[in-house]
Amino acid sequence: MKKGEKILFGVVGFLVIITVVNFTVLETIRHQSDKPMFPILTHFVFSEDGKKGYEIYQHGGCYTCHRAVGSGTSMGVSLDGLGSKHDVNYFYRFLKNPEITYGAKTLDHGSKPKDAAYVMELPDADLHLVAVFLSELKAESGSSSAFEPPQGESGFIDAMLDMWAPDGWRTQFKDIRGWMKTKSNEVGHDSGAK
Fold it and tell me: What's the helix, strand, coil split of the chain in %, to 5?
């Protein structure tokens, strides 16, 4: 082997060893503690209709694309916390006619031959139950699925504001979180009025 190849293999080997050690340490810590490594900011409390909607979600195979209630894949939109963004009526309208409700073409939902076209063909009662299920998937402020940003100071948000926010926002709002709260109230008010 040439000297350059030895160095390359040495660096790759070193990175593999570091990765295995880090993985082992993290898994050991995770299994030794009852406390989650990261705060869980999504939650759900299902009503009877929500439980029935969850069963339809499971039996319909929706989890092959979506993540909800801690299981499924991330091929599609994660559903955990979406109930904090929209109400039952929005979800029902979306399930019934996704592209009109969404206002754009969707990848898998909509008319045939799309993979999830069968959702539109479910009976109205089933669509309502799934809509109830989705509306009960809530998120706390600070979750990526919530309208509300985290409470208190955030160095990350402040750094992003310094880097990206237009100067006009700084004179109009104390920080972006004030603007986001105003927008979430407007959207929440609009979705409730429809």
Answer: 60, 5, 35
